[in-house]
Design a protein that fits this description.
six-stranded mixed β-sheet, 6 helices, Rossmann fold, 26% helix, alpha/beta
């Protein structure tokens, strides 16, 4: 029996932009994924079925090693889909070329636990790098735009600081600004609060929630942090490479 993801709803209303199609922005159907070859081949994801719609905030949680990050990287076009269907913004990723995956990634903002900031660049320069990937911004005031979004995330006094001189929470704010500045349609966040204290972690996810709502984008957030589950419209549990209806139970093997 294929288990469906457990759903917990919140009171936060999802704003659907006028005129947007009713199709999901992320849709996985019978998605499987494997690592290795031959006798060493190991299945990491089993028959994943999941639809995520415009403006939703989805939290994916579950034990370490359950496949959450693998699924996140597939949805972000960082790995090729192997078996089943995975559509992102209406584009099928199973069989997609490297060029198609690159084009898709321009519509996605990534936030990682380790920040992945360039230590030899300032906060403003790190954020500006994300704009430089998009031709439509090259003739605009990218420094001004970068400064403005850093002010929005509370780092107006730190725009010219090198990232090594920033705290963990401040680095994550730079990462959020970098992810959001190009107004992506989807934000994928992998354990964005793992290295932060309670207050900093809460501030970071509430900032993501606020800015994403203003821009009308969708968030998929992988976390073990039970302190932030209440920001989600839905919570999806994964265990042993399967979506399961019980976060405390081992998914049944068919």
């Amino acid at each position: 029996m294929q288990l469906q993801p457990s759903v917990i709803t919140s009171s936060r209303a999802v704003q659907i932009p006028q005129g947007s199609p009713n199709q999901p922005v992320i849709s996985a159907q019978r998605l499987n994924h494997y690592f290795g070859e031959g006798d060493l081949r190991k299945q990491a994801l089993y028959d994943i079925n999941l639809d995520i719609r415009v403006g939703e905030i989805i939290i994916m949680t579950g034990p370490s090693g359950s496949g959450k990050t693998t699924l996140l990287t597939l949805m972000g076009g960082l790995r090729s889909a192997q078996e089943g269907s995975l559509k992102i913004l209406g584009r099928e990723l199973n069989g997609a070329t490297k060029q198609q995956l690159t084009e898709l990634r321009r519509n996605i903002g990534y936030i990682f636990q380790a920040h992945n900031l360039m230590t030899f660049l300032t906060a403003k320069q790190n954020v500006r790098m994300a704009l430089e990937l998009h031709d439509q911004y090259l003739d605009q005031d990218m420094d001004g735009m970068s400064t403005e979004i850093l002010e929005t995330v509370g780092l107006g006094q730190r725009v010219d600081y090198y990232t090594d001189s920033l705290s963990g929470g401040q680095k994550q704010r730079v990462a959020i600004a970098r992810a959001l500045i190009s107004r992506p349609k989807i934000i994928l966040a992998d354990e964005p609060t793992a290295a932060l204290d309670k207050k900093s972690g809460r501030d970071v996810v509430e900032l993501m929630q606020k800015l994403a709502a203003e821009q009308g984008c969708t968030i998929l957030l992988v976390t073990h942090d039970n302190r932030i589950l209440d920001i989600a419209d839905r919570i999806v549990y994964m265990e042993d490479g399967r979506l399961t209806d019980n976060p405390n139970a081992t998914a049944a093997v068919e």
